[in-house]
Design brief:
2 domains; alpha+beta; about 475 residues; about 20% strand; single chain
């Protein structure tokens, strides 16, 4: 049975279970806006024990937590500013059709066309990740609150009133005691949740790294394009043997499904109809593929062997190719749709390196979209670049993606929660910071409100730019 069907069935069952659970305990529920709060004493003893026994350690960690809070706040503000800049100065909004602020709900990569950026996000992942993220976040708040003598009234879970499958956790503290605490103590409690999320993100990253290393096998080098060069349109003489005099001629003569042979002076290039049409509007310059062995043979983009020698990374590929001479015929094994496919390729001379055997494949970082580059720079990699890894089984993929999501969601929650907005930990954290610097509650409140309004305006700008991209 398709796992998606199983996963959606799990979603329905969980929603029914949550509804039944809340109905049978309706007397213990508290309504708060769109949420239903189920209060318990679960975890209070653990919070009291750790917060009381390890006061010295927690005092030291308070400095770490507060410092980390400032870094996270600076980081999320930078990312928002960078996003606004990109949306206003580039065409990202028209290329990436997903909204700039996508909700973290099951299947959002498929719903918003983000499969190239994120792995599958099943409901099972959502449940496990949210339980881990919310539990460690709230318990950490409680532990640091107890360290500074702030009473914990209860713990519990918050369910979305109209769809209880979406839920979170909370720790209810004595707000009066919290407000009477010193500024340092309040900031320590406020930053404790994101501090715990960062620690869990680091932990799961190393678990992910170890799991991937054991269950995924490097099976070859994966290239992302063929070698290409820029040529002047007015120097193109013919396409598939027919003379041309304009870009329209070139486009009309290009084969839709086969490679097109293009002559530029005395040198031959290769193009495709899709490649040529995508460059319409370029100012007299278009990119064409070099007349290289790889594209002529249309080899798959994962090279597993060369001449019977296993290829596991780019260094292996380079060393093995250099052991051949120009004009040699080399046997290349590729992996295509999970199967081995063999080719015999005659090596040519590299146009940029005389007497060097050449296959004509490319590893172009620029093939990533701008947003992909940002994602790659923010989230660390656990794979060697351009290496194709094959999982031992389907379970390996499922567990790997689950670990990745737990890691990412913890990191995202830590960043988002430190935004200086009133409903988030970063709101009060920022206001206390301004108050500590100025000594004026009135100024701190006004300045905080101004920053909150500015952030909301930036979000509106992102959404507006995205909406205008459809016009």
């Amino acid at each position: 049975m398709n796992f998606v069907i199983i996963d959606l069935s799990l979603l329905a069952l969980f929603a029914l279970f949550a509804t039944f659970f809340l109905y049978t305990r309706r007397k213990n529920l508290k309504k708060e806006g769109a949420l239903l709060l189920y209060k318990t004493q679960w975890g209070v003893k653990l919070i009291d024990y750790i917060g009381t026994k390890y006061k010295g350690t927690l005092k030291f960690l308070s400095y770490v937590s507060i410092t980390l809070g400032y870094f996270l706040m600076a980081g999320i503000l930078f990312l928002i500013g960078q996003s606004v800049y990109l949306y206003l100065t580039t065409n990202i909004a028209s290329v990436i059709k997903a909204p700039p602020i996508a909700p973290l709900i099951p299947y959002f990569p498929k719903l918003f066309g983000l499969q190239s950026f994120f792995p599958n996000f099943y409901f099972a992942y959502f449940i496990i990740a949210i339980v881990i993220v919310a539990t460690v976040h709230e318990i950490s708040h409680g532990i640091f609150a107890k360290r500074y003598g702030i009473r914990i009234k209860s713990t519990g879970f918050a369910f979305l009133k109209y769809f209880p499958a979406f839920f979170g956790a909370f720790v209810e503290q004595d707000d009066n005691q919290m407000e009477k605490s010193k500024k340092f103590e309040q900031m320590s409690v406020l930053s404790a949740g994101v501090f715990a999320n960062v620690l869990i993100a680091i932990l799961f990253y190393f678990i992910l790294f170890g799991f991937f290393s054991v269950t995924f096998i490097p099976m070859g080098v994966q290239f992302n394009d063929y070698a290409y060069s820029a040529v002047e349109v007015d120097k193109i003489l013919s396409v598939n043997g027919v003379a041309v005099s304009s870009y329209e001629d070139i486009l009309n003569l290009a084969n839709e499904t086969e490679l097109s042979r293009i002559m530029v002076g005395e040198k031959g290039y290769i193009g495709t109809e899709k490649m040529i049409s995508s460059q319409k509007g370029n100012e007299g310059i278009i990119f064409l593929y070099e007349n290289a062995p790889a594209i002529n043979a249309q080899i798959g983009n994962v090279i597993n062997e060369i001449g019977g020698v296993k290829i596991k990374e780019i260094g292996d590929l380079q060393n093995e190719l250099m052991s051949y001479s120009l004009g040699d015929t080399v046997e290349i094994r590729t992996i295509e749709e999970g199967k081995f496919v063999d080719y015999e390729i005659v090596l040519k001379e590299n146009p940029e390196e005389k007497n060097s055997p050449w296959l004509g494949i490319g590893f172009y970082g620029s093939s990533q979209s701008k947003i992909s580059q940002i994602v790659s720079s923010v989230f660390p990699q656990y794979k060697k670049p351009s290496v194709y890894y094959q999982p031992r089984n389907d379970l390996s993929i499922f567990v790997k993606d689950l670990l990745w999501w737990v890691f990412i969601i913890n990191l995202l929650v830590a960043l988002f929660n430190m935004l200086p907005l009133g409903i988030l930990d970063g709101g009060r954290f920022f206001e206390i910071t301004v108050l500590s610097l100025t000594g004026s509650k009135k100024f701190a409140k006004r300045f905080f409100n101004g920053i909150s309004i500015l952030i909301l305006l930036l979000f509106l700008i992102l959404v507006a730019k995205w909406l205008f991209s459809f016009i």
